[in-house]
TrEMBL record:
This is Uncharacterized protein. It comes from Paxillus involutus ATCC 200175. It comes from the Eukaryota. The keyword DNA repair does not apply. Gene3D superfamilies: Cytochrome P450.
């Protein structure tokens, strides 16, 4: 039980640690991180439930670009109509 709980907390979006300081850490952790996580989940749920997202016919997904620590969409990727 102990190992499973630790792994779940390690990958939680709102948990803090000194290696990932987006929401601060320790005493200075931002209380709004819980609100932000719920808003992002709500937006993703809206997209999944409201839109039919698929690749174009016979299309392959262009690879993502890695810029420093960020992963961004390939500039030649197009939005389907």
């Amino acid at each position: 039980m102990g190992d499973e709980d630790e792994d779940g907390a390690k990958h939680s979006f709102v948990s803090t640690n000194p290696e990932y300081l987006v929401f601060g850490h320790g005493r200075h952790a931002r209380p709004g991180r819980f609100f932000a996580a719920n808003e992002l989940k709500s937006m993703l749920a809206h997209v999944v439930l409201s839109y039919d997202i698929k690749l174009e016919d016979n299309a392959t997904r262009p690879g993502s670009l890695h810029v420093g620590t960020h992963i961004v969409a390939h500039p030649t990727a197009k939005r389907a109509h």
